Prior knowledge:
The chain has helices spanning 35-38, 42-60, 94-99, 136-143, 179-189, 205-218, 220-234, 238-259, 271-284, 294-297, 300-316; strands at residues 4-10, 15-21, 24-31, 67-74, 88-89, 102-104, 114-116, 120-121, 132-133, 152-155, 160-165, 171-177, 264-267, 288-291. It is of the alpha/beta class and 317 residues long. The longest helix is centred in the C-terminal third of the chain and has 22 residues, at 238-259.
Amino acid sequence: MQNSYIAIDGGTTNTRLTLVSGHTVQGTAKYAVGVSDAVRDRAVLAGAVRDGIRELLRQTGVSETALRCILASGMITSEYGLCPLEHLNTPCGLDELAAGLYPTRLEDISSVPFAFLRGVKTGGDSWQTADMMRGEETELFGLCERPLPNALYVLPGSHSKWIHTDEAGRIADFSTQLTGELIHAVASDTILKEAVSLSRQAADAEYLENGYAYACRNGVSAAFFKVRVLKNSFGIRDDRLFSFFVGAALAPEIEHMLALPVGTIVLGGKAQLKLPMAALLRMHSEKNIEVVPDAVTEHAAAYGAVRIYERCLEIRE
Length: 317
């Protein structure tokens, strides 16, 4: 099987490996081991990667000798990862990411050569403008072959990234939002844990809008408590409570997006956040709102890693 790769998306608490052959995903393996475990013992993370490679080869029937390279991005290149690397500076596009690839070998994990992908940071000496990411830059280039110029790409998640592209479609600037973790923390560890179920989807448009509008008028904290009022005093069902809750949680982000001087907003990430975000933006904006299908976002980090690596090969030829 030609042009086979294993792409590793290394996070803080999880590591995901994907085998890609001919630009098609053949198999995946995920482990609840991440860089946070490597702080105590690097061997734990190395072992998970080694096990994941073996599992993928077993799943797919691909031999180790058929792998061209193992590509790794995300927190696995942080100071506690398997290969600590400095960030690249913005502006940063496909060519810059390709040129920043770091080839190496980790014989204790696999005889297949590795290539580690660097993260990206914003410049400047002020804490107000400084930011960094590891992994989302790879995900961005897996969502599309070339990002749109002068657009905003939003990747919702535990730590959501807003990525602004320049006229050449490069990463010009970005910022990080803690919305995903905030939603999880409030739903899991406050008085709302009996009212909000994270297994739900924010699919009720009326209550999504009600939560958004109330938070805009009265603040997110006050809107969160109204979830309890809606449940206990009005008997509102669970799916509507969750929609109201998410609408309130997303209100500050939506308000900020509406004020940005961009004509196109592209939403990736997981459906639980990107779909209500898209619904609210379409209710309140004339901007062009594009939603990347789940089939693409699911493996965007792997596709992006392959795209960056193959661009590196083109540059070197």
